[in-house]
């Protein structure tokens, strides 16, 4: 393994300060409720609205501000996401009355969570596609109350019309104009205007991620999302234009985003470097993409695809693209990734928007232990047992003995009393 381009070393000295700032925001919201939300909305987003919920009139107005053709494309994306979520849900089945011992019947039920909040980022871009990715699987799962929130645009004092339209198409029940750590606190603990939820999903900036971490337990979460990342593996026949385009597409998210390229070909590595510089010229988001690539981008030269796969599994990337001849063999060597894009035509952008897989994916090596958001995140697999007298006779003495072995005498008695 040889690094042809390495990232700049990161400084994590400000992490403690971030934790303290977020803790103070959460405590303020818990104590002062809507007053704190309104204060932070104005402080961070210039949003001075007092009523946080979005009205139907605002949603209707948003449709008038969005190009009709784009609305149809949003609906097409929503349809694909829904179809895939429905197919995934079919794989999650209840289990009825499995008999482990005579008279002992076990099973599980599949139950949706009652409520969730879909956090849709604002920031530099109105990421309306995220509204689809979060709310549609929740709806397919059967969540009764699907809420969404997003920070206000500084220009309008309301949520971006693109985001409002996407939220409405996704079937969101309630929409609130609030973002940041204070929004996470509000939906975790509740305020006068905002009823708390059982689960919060969706990406956000470092304050949102830290707030989700601190509120976890009070509320369920999907995972802690960090800066977005893509890793591309390619042999010598890879297309440098495609690879460079996909790396820059990732880098333009924000200055912390990361693009990693692993290849068996020194020539392709050099060609991709040249192509990145060429494509940066004239790119509207060059200031962000170039900064992210220069500071976080990596190019790694390896001796084999096997080595590339081992390195990729160590990185455990959010998005993983493979541009190789023997796709099946390569896939068999890969275990850690949020979502896999197979072949040079399977660009990450298609998964981000329209193909139907979810783009809410684990970052910062979390794909070692979790996959991306899907309909199953909103479903609880809850076991049950049904035992008759025959069942008590078959397992009662064992239960009594096991309880006595642990010194739990009331447990033992609860078994013994049923044995008669």
Automatic annotation (TrEMBL):
UniProt binding sites for Zn(2+): 250, 253, 352, 411
UniProt GO BP: L-histidine biosynthetic process
PROSITE patterns named among the record's database cross-references: HISOL_DEHYDROGENASE
Co-factor note (free text): Binds 1 zinc ion per subunit.
Annotated EC: 1.1.1.23
Active site as annotated: 318 (proton acceptor), 319 (proton acceptor)
Pathway: Amino-acid biosynthesis; L-histidine biosynthesis; L-histidine from 5-phospho-alpha-D-ribose 1-diphosphate: step 9/9
Keywords associated with the record: Amino-acid biosynthesis, Histidine biosynthesis, Metal-binding, NAD, Oxidoreductase, Zinc
Gene3D superfamilies named among the record's database cross-references: 1.20.5.1300, Nitrogenase molybdenum iron protein domain
Single annotated GO MF: zinc ion binding
GO CC list: cytosol
Cofactor(s) in the UniProt record: Zn(2+)
Catalytic activity: L-histidinol + 2 NAD(+) + H2O = L-histidine + 2 NADH + 3 H(+)
Binding sites annotated in the UniProt record for substrate: 228, 250, 253, 319, 352, 406, 411
CDD domains xrefs: Histidinol_dh (cd06572)
Entries under PANTHER family matching the protein: HISTIDINE BIOSYNTHESIS TRIFUNCTIONAL PROTEIN, HISTIDINOL DEHYDROGENASE HDH
Recorded family membership: Belongs to the histidinol dehydrogenase family.
Functional description taken from the UniProt entry: Catalyzes the sequential NAD-dependent oxidations of L-histidinol to L-histidinaldehyde and then to L-histidine.
Name of this chain's protein: Histidinol dehydrogenase
UniProt source species: Sedimentibacter hydroxybenzoicus DSM 7310
